[in-house]
Specification:
Elements (H helix, E strand, L loop, with lengths): L17 H27 L5 E3 L4 E8 L13 H23 L5 H23 L2 E9 L2 E2 L5 H18 L2 H12 L3
Antiparallel strand pairs: 1-2, 2-3, 3-4
Length: 183
């Protein structure tokens, strides 16, 4: 009988591994959580309604046709398609980066959170014409613009990405040695 081959199993096409699909699953989980929470808010609150939770936090239902901090929200509607296209281009780039860094920890986590958040907000723009926001923090009459789960995922993802980029060179070399020799 021929001896069994000791060579590793071939990688999936184009270098796609189980780890890559695990990171995609995380992005999908962010989208699902974001859309589920938005569905709950939409089914229980009317537009503009505010439900006090604490002295500094309310649940509200608002629609943001713009970007962060309502950037370009007061324009005629072209920004909806611009932000959809921009998000899809950024997601495509992040998917390529995710594939390249899939064996690391911090960067794929960041990319997955950003992709999931961006897709969640793209769904809103397609379905509702604007992003559904509902988390509102304030001190007296001064508040932070309302945001949602997708926005939170994007913010955490960008923070992790920046942290990963500014780590010491020693930490970066440890991650790259992990990516060359995955376990």
């Amino acid at each position: 009988m021929p001896e069994a081959s000791r060579e590793p199993a071939p990688a999936a096409p184009h270098g796609l591994t189980r780890r890559f699909f695990g990171w995609l699953a995380l992005a999908a989980l962010v989208v699902a959580l974001d859309q589920f929470v938005k569905w709950l808010v939409l089914s229980r609150l009317d537009f503009g309604e505010a439900v006090p939770v604490t002295g500094f936090f309310q649940l509200v239902l608002v629609y943001n046709p713009g970007a962060a901090f309502s950037f370009l929200a007061d324009h005629s509607g072209w920004q909806r398609w611009f932000f959809i296209a921009l998000a899809l281009v950024v997601c495509g780039w992040l998917l390529a980066m995710l594939r390249h860094h899939q064996h690391e920890r911090a960067l794929p986590l960041a990319f997955s959170l950003i992709i999931g958040g961006a897709v969640g907000n793209v769904i809103d723009r397609i379905v509702h014409g604007a992003v559904v926001d509902f988390l509102y923090f304030h001190i007296g009459r001064h508040g932070w613009p309302a945001f949602n789960v997708a926005d939170s995922a994007i913010t955490v993802g960008v923070t992790v990405m920046l942290w990963a980029q500014f780590r010491s060179p020693r930490d970066a070399s440890r991650d790259s040695s992990t990516s060359e020799n995955p376990s």
